[in-house]
Amino acid sequence: MTAETADGSSGIDGEDPSIRDILATEIGKTDFRIVISTMLAIYALFIVLTFLGGGDINSAGSSIIRLTFLFAAYGILTLALNLHWGYTGLFNIGVAGFMAVGVYTMAIVSTSPDAVSGTGLGLPLIVGVIAGMIMAALVGLVAAVPALRLRADYLAIVTLGLSEIIRLTLNSATLSNWTVSVFGFGTGGGSGIDLPARPTDALLNTAFGDVLVDVLGTFLRPSVIRRSLWVLVMIGFVIAVYWLLVRVGNSPFGRVLKAIREDELVAQSLGKDTRWFKIKVFMLGCALMGLGGILWQGSQGYVSPDSFRPIVTFYVFVALIIGGSGSNTGSLVGSILFVGLLFEGPRTLANIVSGSLSLGSAPGTFAGAMAPLASLEITPLLAYFMNNISALRFILLGVVLVIIMQRRPEGVLGHRTETAAAISLDRPGPARTNGGESDE
Amino acid sequence: MDVSDVITRGKVTIREQPLLAIAVLATALLALDLLARLAGIEVPLAGGRTFGGELSMGRFSGLVWNGIIVGLIFGLAGIGLSMTYSILNFANFSHGDLVTTGAFTGWGAALLVAGWGIGDIGHLLLVRPGSGASPNEIGASIVQAPLSILIGVIIAALATVVVAVIIDRIVYKPMRDRGGIPLLIASIGAALALRYILQFVYGGRNRGVTSTQDVNTEIAGFSVNMHELTLVIVAISLMLAMHFMLQRTKLGKAMRAMADNKDLALVTGIPTERVVTATWVLGGALAGVAGYLYVLERGTIEFNIGWFLLLFIFAAVILGGIGSIYGAIAGGFVIGFVHEVSLIWIPSDFNAAAAFLIMILVLLYRPQGIFGGVTTA
Amino acid sequence: MSDATTEPAEAAPESERSLSGDVPLRVENLRKTFGGIVAVDDASFAVEAGSLTGLIGPNGAGKSTTFNCITGAHTPDSGTVTFQGEDITGRRPDQIATEGLVRTFQIARELEEMTVLENLMLAPQGQIGEQLWRSVTPGARVEVIEQERELRERVWETVDFFEIDHIAHDEAGTLSGGQRKLLEMARAMMTEPDMLLLDEPLAGVNPTLEEKLLERIHDLREQGYTFLLVEHDMDVIMENCEHVIVMHQGSVLAEGEPSMVKNNDRVIEAYLGEIDV
């Protein structure tokens, strides 16, 4: 993987290629460092907040596990969306719908036939996960074939409409108990569907699990340990997806995607059959969105159509835009910042403020909060603010989105160039025809 | 020769426009089925399904009436969306929340007037956010307090205009030339902020607003819901006013020119910023009134009613052809009918999905709208 | 002015140019309308192999539309386009480019956020790494990298040939107008075309760069490439092309050697007519 900032590369043109090469590797490492240091900074922030709020090491660990879970969940989805929008310029705002297809297909394949809500075939989980990804890709194909020739804004409306159709269908009572002869395909309708247990949970009941609980159990609850095992699996998937997409991006295939984003007619005029590239990339992205949905919403024992409202898509979009669309590293950084500062941060902060200031019971209405201002009493208003932190969080999200689009559309990391080629494109020097350009 | 000629031509049509042929065939089948149902004829088909069946004229006309009501809301709100889409060149995802803005501000005013002296001002102005005087105690209905309802309409329009213009100045004006997609994304941000500001101020509770006493009466032998009748009259009057504005006034002509071709309009010296502001004023006012009337009809209010309407409004606009206000009105009716009349055939879980599906199909196969390339005229 | 005749006034006798091997591109009775406005009206001409042919005409003569019809950006209403003996009428742009007929654009359409090198690496045909699985699968990627190395060699040769090596790492969006035109021609060359269609390659280019661009075109022509050049500037065409096609109001008004065309009364009238308006 070679990544370099435009600023970094412009000053070293024409210098000795070996210096360039060293710099490129250094900057490549910096990418990894940026992700890790952003993550550590958010961890540090939350540990401080937890202790300020009077929490112990257990709650700090719990909050870190929760953060990491969300980092990973949004990370995968943001990477997949980056492949669509950042790389290829396909404005897909139906992410939630493709997630839903993945999760529900997995559920119908792998949930036990005698579940409380919904019915499945009870096949092994791995079959369900693969089926979920394939089904998400196929739904993507059905949408892609006619829709990919549309203008970006039309594609946006089509994908949003599609994701709502998917959600409404899953929500329908008509399909909630659908069975074909003895096989159940019930979605459970509005009451949701039961899901298979996380495979890592069983690990805790083995000898290995006992050792783990013995070692870590002194300062972490078993439930936290159980969740952290799953989070490790998710981190593994994030790394795998990142690896995959960096390879896709740094290849002749990725080069054509970038060209489609910039100007599709130019790509065509250079002999690229852009239709196939778009269909393939759309299907791949949809499959990864299905996977992201399975790892996230599919790992909690139960899911309902409410988890796939369009707002989920917008969350993923905000994460991508913060990090800078077009950059895989940016996608991860954006996910971490979004989860830490916009999604979890405000709530944690509000808990601490209302816990430490003893604001009393919050007024039930805005009028009740404003009226005491006449007598210069600000506490009720503050309490109302803390009590309605979820609304304020959405307002913050909207404002941040607008500000980024106005001031910094390239994302927090600034303008980045992740060269779309399988090798470094520097002039090949006679001395080093084989050096410094190994596979990634 | 004639017959074979017709057949050949038919074959050519089917080959060249298979989707059109399918659409025509499906519509014909549904119409036939509808007639059969109304006549009470039932023809058994395979698998326990039947063609035709039982449908009372009363239920049918009820569904059609509902379709008109809903269609007017979609169309009224759609006019503004269509205008901003063509004149400012982006799909405005915050339009639904302008609808909500009108609903809350308008009903705050209406309750304040109707319930003056009953309960405290905050309770009325914030449209009953918590416990307090009940809708029937406040008595906001066209029968009990017609003036309050009328004032509500005006406030809904004015307040939404103010909000729309402020959002334009803060959010869209600095990025006027940034292209449709950055603006679209910014409008998603504006939508989120606006929706949750409304929730923050007015509260998240779904609550009743209108008084229902004596609203259902009989006029000339027909049972009529006065609120629905008010909705129809106000909506149609506004649509007519819009029509005269566009056809007769200088501003209207300038707006039509801009919708057709922005560059041309710039060259010919139409003051674009003024036209842009006018677009927000008109579009915002109509959206606000649409939200207000929607609540008048359904009787309850919640902070995300407009957001839930947004896709339907988009569907109406797209069906009618983006940029055409008459198209938006007609598209509103079509989507309204699809939403209501489709209940004859499909379970109520799926009528919204059916409307979205039609929108998607139109975007895919006839992006200029079902009424052809007739632009804002 | 009367509606122009459909017959080229000074056309060379048909028999001389009928061998498909010598005439890679032939346009016959091409017609294209946009909602009632006739942009190209029954245009016919042919381009000889290895020639530098110019296509000129006043504004609105239908040059760019003809160009777009040849390269697949537009589908003509009627008429045929034959390239190397094969009917390519109505094919997609990518199919036509794959046949070896590659174009540049009037307003340089470089891929702004891609570097000059990326732009050039994009162009070559038959890149195995454009198959997704090859680029991703560990074993198969070795071959992709091998091919990338070969392409990189060619890219740097091309960069040197067009003398844009000093801006090779810059993003195309940061280049000047003239540099963009150079990049665009270099990119078209990377596809290894049989014939190049250049749409106003000199528009908005400063004189120094214009010199350089023309030099490159002549160099390449000597290497055996065929060029069809659309230009608004009559002098450039007259000085550089050996065969000139003049379009007016959608059809071919005159055709022949520059000196003959230059003195054609109808051509003079057409150009004067434009000046008068």
TrEMBL record, chain A:
Give the membrane topology: Multi-pass membrane protein
Task: Give one GO term, molecular function aspect.
Answer: branched-chain amino acid transmembrane transporter activity
Provide the transmembrane region boundaries. Answer: 32-52, 64-83, 90-109, 121-145, 152-170, 228-245, 281-299, 311-343, 355-375, 381-404
Q: What are the UniProt keywords, alphabetically? A: Cell membrane, Membrane, Transmembrane, Transmembrane helix
**Any single Pfam family the record assigns to this protein:** BPD_transp_2
The record's subcellular location field reads: Cell membrane
Q: Name one GO cellular component term.
A: plasma membrane
Q: Which domain of life is it from?
A: Archaea
Q: What is its main location?
A: membrane
For this protein, the record's InterPro entries field holds: ABC_transp_permease, LivM-like
Name of this chain's protein: Branched-chain amino acid ABC transporter permease
Q: Which species is the source of this protein?
A: Natronosalvus hydrolyticus
Organism taxonomic ancestry: Archaea, Methanobacteriati, Methanobacteriota, Stenosarchaea group, Halobacteria
Automatic annotation (TrEMBL), chain B:
Cellular location(s) = Cell membrane
Q: CDD domains under this entry?
A: TM_PBP1_LivH_like
Please provide the record's keywords in A-Z order: Amino-acid transport, Cell inner membrane, Cell membrane, Membrane, Transmembrane, Transmembrane helix, Transport
Q: Name one GO molecular function term.
A: L-valine transmembrane transporter activity
Instruction: List residues traversing the bilayer.
Output: 20-39, 60-87, 107-126, 147-167, 179-198, 229-246, 275-295, 307-338, 344-365
Q: What is the topology of this protein in the membrane according to its UniProt annotation? A: Multi-pass membrane protein
User: Residue span of the signal peptide, if any?
Assistant: none
Spell out the Pfam families in the cross-references.
BPD_transp_2
Q: What's this protein's name?
A: Branched-chain amino acid ABC transporter permease
Q: Identify the species of origin.
A: Natronosalvus hydrolyticus
The taxonomy runs: Archaea, Methanobacteriati, Methanobacteriota, Stenosarchaea group, Halobacteria
From TrEMBL, chain C:
- Disordered: where is this region? 1-23
Alphabetically list the UniProt keywords: Amino-acid transport, ATP-binding, Nucleotide-binding, Transport
GO process terms (BP)? amino acid transport
**Sample GO molecular function, one term:** ATP binding
Q: Which SMART domains match?
A: AAA (SM00382)
- One GO cellular component term, please give it: plasma membrane
Q: Which Pfam families match?
A: ABC_tran (PF00005), BCA_ABC_TP_C (PF12399)
Residue stretches of biased makeup (Low complexity)? 1-12
Q: What is the superkingdom listed in this entry's lineage? A: Archaea
The UniProt record lists the ABC transporter domain at: 25-274
Q: Briefly state the protein's biological role.
A: Probable component of a branched-chain amino-acid transport system.
Spell out the family assignment given in the record's similarity comment.
Answer: Belongs to the ABC transporter superfamily.
Per its record, how is this protein called by name?
Probable branched-chain amino acid transport ATP-binding protein LivG
Biological source species: Natronosalvus hydrolyticus
